[in-house]
Amino acid sequence: MSKEREERMDWEEETIEDPAHYVLHHAMRGLFEAEEIVREDHIYIPEWQLAIRPYVARWSEQSVLLKFHLSSPKWDRAIVETSAGIGSSAKNALGMAVGGFTLSLMQGIASMENEREPELLETKYGDTVHHWKVYRSNIVGLGESIAEKSEIQFWEALKDEIAKRVGNQKLCYIKIYAAKNGDDITGECRINDIPSPELGSIVAELASSWQVDGFASQKQFIFLQQSEGTYTPYPYQPEQIAAATRTAVELFKACETQELYDDFPVRLAERLQDNSLAQELYSFLPEICAENAFEELTYTEEMSIYKGEESFSIYRTQLASYYLIYDALFAGFREEQFDNEVYNQYIGVSSIYNVICNAKEQGADLLENGGVLTLSFAMSGNYRFR
């Protein structure tokens, strides 16, 4: 046996006592297109102002699941990515997981930071226009190779629908995953980590056309960076939306008469000193509870918002507040800040429950037979899209 092969086997079989330390201090070093520095629990890339925090979610001698939390003061959101690895040794498995992360997500971020060949995109959200630069990562494939130019297919197939689903974010990131294993087809598309079933169906359709005998998968990231000229910073942090959600729930619980409930939006706006946020909390909270309760129904990603007399087609991922309110509400239930009584009260005043009841009166059981609902919300003329 050659000395080189012997040294390689020793390296592969060496026991890793602390996988988190190994990932941070060894596996992730020297892989990026800019100089990195190890700082306590994360890697920092000064040129990009980017912090990368790796976590070992699952670990065995031949498989690993890593989570990466990425943040930058230049962004208006953090990015969280998972990467799995399987190998003949612990180091091989770690190398595969780190390699998948580096070759896909980090390669896309490098393209964005180095402004490599951006594509220009214009979108409309409510009554405002937004301009973006679009960057695509490499496609990382596992299993059998795909003959088609799938990188072009993903973006070309999705870009018009993606454009409808981005709002006023500073940074928007899209994760695309496609897989085929015989007749088993998987298609996923997530916008800022929110799954879009409708876009996932488009991805699945692309994967179904692959000419492969066994398993094949592809993953790609797309980054949309908004122009400073069209970007307006959102005025709230998640913890502030969580506090506003608690305020809304407390005021709602105190609505013991119809008169108090009718006056609720005005009192909420006075408490929050923000009429637009108050209208969103008043409108969204009942429907979020009802959607969770009536999972038998299908809810479209698109909704209608009436601003005064004018109607706008909006997607949930466009609204800066929607998923912040969603997360805050269910965190409140998990932490027992809110009880089942308020949950049921919200369902009772929702338009979803009203539609179900009206349909039943006319002889249609939506919960038994299913149905597709598109939500509509009426806002005042001074409501602001954010």
**How many β-strands, per DSSP?**
17
Unreliable stretches: 3-12
Structural class assignment: alpha+beta
User: Please, what is the average pLDDT?
Assistant: 93
List the helices and strands in order: HHEEEEEHEEEHEEEHEHHHHEEEHHHHEE
Q: Helix content range of the residues, please?
A: 40-55%
Q: How would you describe the overall organization of this protein?
A:
By secondary structure, the protein is α+β, with helices and mostly antiparallel strands. The chain contains 13 helices and 17 strands. The chain has helices spanning 3-13, 19-27, 90-113, 150-165, 197-208, 238-253, 258-262, 264-272, 275-293, 322-334, 340-348, 351-361, 366-369; strands at 37-39, 42-45, 50-59, 63-71, 79-86, 119-125, 128-136, 140-143, 171-181, 184-191, 194-195, 215-226, 298-299, 302-307, 310-315, 372-373, 376-379. Strand 1 (37-39) and strand 2 (42-45) form a beta hairpin. It is globular and about 65 Å long. Mean pLDDT is 93; it is low at 3-12.
